């Protein structure tokens, strides 16, 4: 059964933040997306699908790689993200980019439509990600590849954030969250197949992939200031946490984060934190 309420909340959160998503003086999704493209190696003339494309962190680097004879099709469940990415594509004069609102869990493409499927920090938001991975195998051509990123889920740390953030978020404060958005619930949702590399490999093999490679590599996240990071956090997945906290707890969390991040900042107030990221690649087993 599809988790409709969860999907609607995710779509609404990203739709509302689309105009400022991955902006506001913080660099993370862009560098991670470019690194994923480097690892996936889209070739000239290839057909690429970018799932949960957002504003194009993977989409535009991939479009450069495949060139005018190739095609990159970006899909996102949030209409605002597609609108912003489309504006960017027009501004760049790209003719090899197609953008469409679509639920990435149920792609509606014919078999063998793509040579490469990519997704940076998007697969993790699918309620039934493993089933979706099997569907991507079906729409990949023979010897087609998949490449995606996820956080490195580590025991005792807050999901989706670098380990440095865990002591900055009081556990008592999180008790004000609805059950499904508490860290323990998020861990149960994702860690069953993403935490251990061997479990991840086995899941992909059951979905019809081979040559699974798991690379754990940090991505440098930079922010102009602690305040800039907190504002930016309202535009990405952490927005789901912010919007479910009562106002008093939002204020408390904001103050604690800024105070803690100030201690990690340089003399100019800027932040630079290495974020553990898992890069996964595989090939269709046919």
Automatic annotation (TrEMBL):
Domain Methyltransferase: 45-159
Key words, A-Z: Antibiotic biosynthesis, Methyltransferase, S-adenosyl-L-methionine, Transferase
Any GO BP annotation: methylation
Presence of the UniProt keyword Methyltransferase in the record: yes
Catalysed reactions, semicolon-separated: aklanonate + S-adenosyl-L-methionine = methyl aklanonate + S-adenosyl-L-homocysteine
EC number: 2.1.1.288
Top enzyme category: transferase
Gene Ontology MF terms in the entry: methyltransferase activity
Top-level taxon: Bacteria
Pathway recorded for this protein: Antibiotic biosynthesis; daunorubicin biosynthesis; Antibiotic biosynthesis; carminomycin biosynthesis; Antibiotic biosynthesis; rhodomycin biosynthesis; Antibiotic biosynthesis; aclacinomycin biosynthesis
Pfam family, one: Methyltransf_31
InterPro entries assigned: Methyltranfer_dom, SAM-dependent_MTases_sf
Presence of keyword Transport: no
Matches recorded under CDD domains: AdoMet_MTases
Oligomer status and interactors: Homodimer.
Record's function text: Involved in the biosynthesis of aklavinone which is an important precursor common to the formation of the clinically significant anthracyclines such as carminomycin, daunorubicin (daunomycin), rhodomycin, aclacinomycin T (aklavin) and aclacinomycin A (aclarubicin). These compounds are aromatic polyketide antibiotics that exhibit high cytotoxicity and are widely applied in the chemotherapy of a variety of cancers. Catalyzes the methyl esterification of aklanonic acid to yield aklanonic acid methyl ester.
Family the UniProt entry places it in: Belongs to the methyltransferase superfamily. DnrC family.
PANTHER family assigned to the protein according to its UniProt record, in alphabetical order: TRANS-ACONITATE 2-METHYLTRANSFERASE (PTHR43861:SF1), TRANS-ACONITATE 2-METHYLTRANSFERASE-RELATED (PTHR43861)
Protein name: aklanonic acid methyltransferase
